[in-house]
Design brief:
The protein is α/β, with parallel strands linked by helices and 226 residues long. Helices cover 33% and strands 22% of the residues. The protein has six helices and twelve strands. Helix 4 crosses helix 5 and helix 5 packs across helix 6. The protein starts with 9 loop residues before the first strand and ends in a 9-residue tail after the last strand.
Amino acid sequence: MTAASDGNRSVYVVAADDTVRRALSEHRSGPAGWNVAMLSVTRDLPPEPDAIVVVDLDDPAVQSGSVEVVRTSGFAGPILILGNNGAARVPEDEPIARPVRLGTLLARIDAHWTVATDPGTIALGPYEFVSADRVLRDAANDVVIRLTELEHKLLSYLAAAGGGLIDRDQLLECVWGYNTQADTHTVETHIWRLRQKIETDDPASRFLVTEAGGYRLLLAGSDSGG
């Protein structure tokens, strides 16, 4: 379960009908999921600061106007714009090309909340993962390993799973955002490079493990793996 599975999280849908809201609700609503609701740009603004807004409108002028109303209301969180049509206003606006797969939309929402939820400092093998500094720090041996932005996102996403298994397709969607230049081989290559960077002769440094087509981190208190 990722950090996005917090019952306090809200997704608001701006659309002509409730198709997207119902689809999201069926997969992620309820006590352990998200609060998914329709958002009226004439009555309900602004949504809470840590919410995510999904805009699903076909008319380019209406779509663009709706995004502008949400932004001018003071909302600074992510707006996912299905089809876009030039409606993006700021870097937090994310266009998603049509046709939109439900799995892709769910993954993009997950990714925004995972990235927004800083895991702080957690123990990973002989290291401390200091998310804010993007480093793995081995104080005992005076070693600091600096992480690239992508390495940091990978570890943050896996850490948010709490030791749970994340498959390659999920990493591809949530970390890479289904970039057209990326595939599951891209995930495997980056995992391999990260292992080369962090693993030593100390078995404890092998906390990033492969299992049944996916990956997980061995956290303190989690089951050991191979």
